[in-house]
Design brief:
The chain is mainly beta and about 130 residues long. The strands form two sheets. Strands 2, 4, 5, 6, 9, 10 and 11 form a seven-stranded mixed β-sheet that branches. Strands 1-3-8-7 form a four-stranded antiparallel β-sheet, with no helix packed on it. A hairpin with a 4-residue loop joins strand 7 and strand 8.
């Protein structure tokens, strides 16, 4: 079964940093666009960032631009999200996602996601 497994979530103070990582279970993911979404309590799941298969193209939500950086390592079949200058409003469950059908600029649409991870909690609080 195809799996995406996230790690790296936790509690951090405002202004701090966290690095999330997502590991895929199959090498075929190295050819997929991958990305991150987040869902806060009572809210819809929202796009955060995406990256194409060879890291040549990335896309970010307005809330993530300038603070978050997405990267991938196809040798390890991982995609990371470096989050800096974290704010309380960044608190959410963060999900790794992949699509075998579309590139990074279309990954923001939930209907284009073929695979989801189980999520990792990020809490930004003093």
């Amino acid at each position: 079964q195809v799996q995406l497994v996230e790690s790296g979530g936790g509690l951090v103070q405002p202004g701090g940093s966290l690095r999330l990582s997502c590991e895929a279970s199959r090498r075929t993911f190295s050819s997929y666009a991958m990305g991150w979404f987040r869902q806060a309590p009572g809210e819809e799941r929202k796009f955060v960032a995406a990256i194409n298969w060879d890291s040549a193209h990335t896309d970010y939500a307005a809330s993530a631009k300038g603070r978050f950086t997405i990267s991938r390592d196809n040798a390890k079949i991982t995609v990371d999200l470096q989050m800096n200058s974290l704010k309380p409003e960044d608190t959410a469950v963060y999900y790794c996602a992949a699509s075998r059908r579309v590139g990074p600029y279309a990954l923001k649409f939930l209907t284009n996601i073929d695979y989801w991870g189980q999520g990792t909690q990020v809490t930004v609080s003093s």
